[in-house]
Amino acid sequence: MNDTAERVCALMAKELQLDPSLLRPEVKLQDLGVDSLSALEFVFALEKEFRITFDRDVDLRGGEVQHVIDVVDVERSRMAHATAG
Predict the structure, then answer these.
(1) 30 close to 61: Cβ distance less than 8 angstroms
(2) How many angstroms separate the CA atoms of 2 and 4, rounded?
(3) pLDDT tens string 20-75
(4) 61, 62, 27, 55: which is closest to 42 by C-alpha?
(5) Region 6-21: what's the mean pLDDT?
(6) Of 22, 24, 41, 65, which residue has the fewest beta carbons closer than 10 angstroms?
(7) How far apart are CA 57 and CA 59, in angstroms?
(8) H or E stretch including 44?
(9) Are 32 and 16 in contact (CB under 8 A)?
């Protein structure tokens, strides 16, 4: 697991009160009991933790744990390029 994945899973376990052993890349957030409100609150927690800002249309509800990791990686990369350029 890379640094982003480890941090996302640790934050997910803490914020959503989930057993860390359940947080495998292929597990769907819906299967973990993540609903619309908890997904939105988790987006705010991700933004704070990673010091990033997601587009308003980011929606994590239908995805898998890996989707969350990928979304964070993409946004971190985008912001790094924006500040470097």
Answers:
(1) yes
(2) 6
(3) 999 999 999 999 999 989 988 999 999 999 999 988 777 777 789 999 999 999 99
(4) 61
(5) 96
(6) 24
(7) 6
(8) helix 36-50
(9) yes
Tokens (6 digits) for 53: 């800002």
* Burial classification of residue 69, based on how many CB atoms lie within 10 Å of its CB (0-12 exposed, 13-18 middle, 19 or more buried): buried
Task: Quote the pTM value.
Answer: 0.89
The position carrying tokens 């964070």 is 72
Q: Domain 3-84: give its CATH code.
A: 1.10.1200.10
Structure tokens at 24: 């495998």
Fill in the amino acid letter for 70: D
Structural contact between residues 69 and 8, judged by C-beta atoms closer than 8 angstroms = yes
**Cβ-proximal residues to 79 (8 Å cutoff; 6+ apart), any chain:** 52, 53
